[in-house]
Known about the structure:
By secondary structure, this protein is of the alpha+beta class. It has helices at 5-32, 60-73, 102-108, 114-122, 158-172, 250-259, 306-317, 348-363, and strands at 75-83, 89-97, 135-140, 142-148, 178-185, 202-203, 222-230, 237-245, 277-283, 286-291, 324-329, 332-334.
Amino acid sequence: MKFSGNQRRIYQLALGLLILAIALVCAWSLWLRPSDDGVGADPGAEPSAPVEATPVPQDAATGATAQKTEEEAAKVSTIVYYQDNYGYLVPVMCRVPMEDGIAKATLNLMVQSVNNDMQAARLGLRTVLPENTKIDLDISKGLARIDLSGEVMNLPDAAAETNMVNAIVQTLTEFDSVDRVEFLIDGQKKETLTHGTKVSGTFTRGDINLEAVEPTINLSASEPVTLYFPADSGAVIVPVTRMVREGCDVNTAVMELAKGPTNEEMLESVVPAGCGLIGVEVENGVAKLNFTGEFVNLVQNSDGGRMALKALVLTCTQFDGIDSVELYVDGQRYDAGDLGVPTFMNVADSIVYDYIQTQSAMIFDFE
């Protein structure tokens, strides 16, 4: 993602104004600070007695750090499903306070509210359940029975309904105690929501963000593969399900990834324009990807190619037996830095930092 000349000038002006404002605040605070050498003091005033500093308990800083550590230790990781501006579901690992009923607490984070919407906006995402939705949840023997209040009947269209249902099922089946989900609306079973989205029967974990199937694909002889693409915001990775011919392996997955997303206006390609895949070899748990020379243009991305490399690693390591990735360009080893397997595709604590880094790189991209 690159700036035009006008956009770059606007960003540079904004950055300059911010730096100027910080400098003025610093100058103002220095001007108001009493002088240590008596300059500016009242010549007729009595010398003031030295003021003794209030003793600070030596363990104050340690105590604050310990309290922060304890608070963090009391949190657990949970996967929250949001949506982006184009309707793609995006899973994000969040740290939340530990409590009984963590599955219900996770779902409550997905309901529109001031706090939830602000948290989602910090990630460049949106919540999926309508405002004021009340949730009751019972989990027993692998079945999660969720009772939603009538607000869910007021969603604007079938796409919003489908996203909500899919996000709930994906979120609940992230928990080991859940493999099936059943829906109730105001305590009653319903066949469909207002715009025809099915909510009857039981739901199991399905394919996320399923692409339209190409006419050349025979569904009876095909299988799904998950591909990972950077969102156009450059802040998150979006998992996409694509149907491919049976027998999909890492070579097929990387070839499909190199083709790019079907909606290039909504998601970013992982490999640069004109770049081809020469081949993929797997040796001792390492997937060795060999690209044509255009691959080096990846560094021209606004984030230096970091998100694209992450998408490559995630796509490869979903296959059993593949633990790491090495990159080659025209047969020569290419040093792309740390290609370790991420803890999760999107981690809330790092998304904001990554977004700031990306925006900074865009501001100072003078190419």
